[in-house]
Amino acid sequence: MQERLQKIISAAGVASRRKAEAMILNGLVSVNGRTVTELGSKADVERDHIRVAGRLLRPLSSRLTILLHKPIGYVSTLSDPQGRPTVASLLRESGIKERVYPVGRLDYNSSGLMLMTNDGELANTLMSRDTRAPRTYHVKLDGRPCEEDLKKLESGIALDGRKTAPAKIRILGERGEGQKLWCEITLIEGRYHQVRRMFERIGTPVVKLKRVRIAFLTDQGLAPGAWRALTPGETERLKGSKRENRNGKKSLLPRRGKP
Question: pTM surpassing 0.85?
Fold first, then answer.
């Protein structure tokens, strides 16, 4: 059966659909020896010889999705030009031989949950703007924001000329050395360093950030550096999150927490 090339490449676990499209446009994909550069091109993965960057594409025999607790000091990519440790190297050291790639990112100085998969359909679902799966973070702040500033963040502020989607914030209290204030923030979008930039805009920089939840998945039982494979039921539930959002079956965000 013929399908669009970008869908075939993504489903084979080579890259996300968006990156697959870039590969096609850059002339890195060939079908039966002929370079293809048009995004509407189709092929049959069972009959055609498809090569991506010179390597023969083979259909996946099994899907694997991993929930990883990324420690601070790891880059959320498959490789790093600066030679820093990556989440891919962390999984290899843990015995994972399958090639899985990150769905979204956490910056070098942040920790918490990440999904890594070779399931292109799942990756495309979670990266779609239509899905808007909630992500929850615990942040330690340098300062104490007022209620008015928190309401501004919840309703949306301008970042890069575009208003952020609604968020929910809950005060967790003061903890640790220096009794810094901790907050919980839940977002339904993922822009570049969004949480840190949002709090910087109201004058309370983030000094520590940890992602504790992705949709219904939590970090319970996962120490930094640990991982677990998702069950088939969990994977299907994540794939269904796009349909749930369109049908309006569930509230995307928790109720507002009182300071």
Answer: no
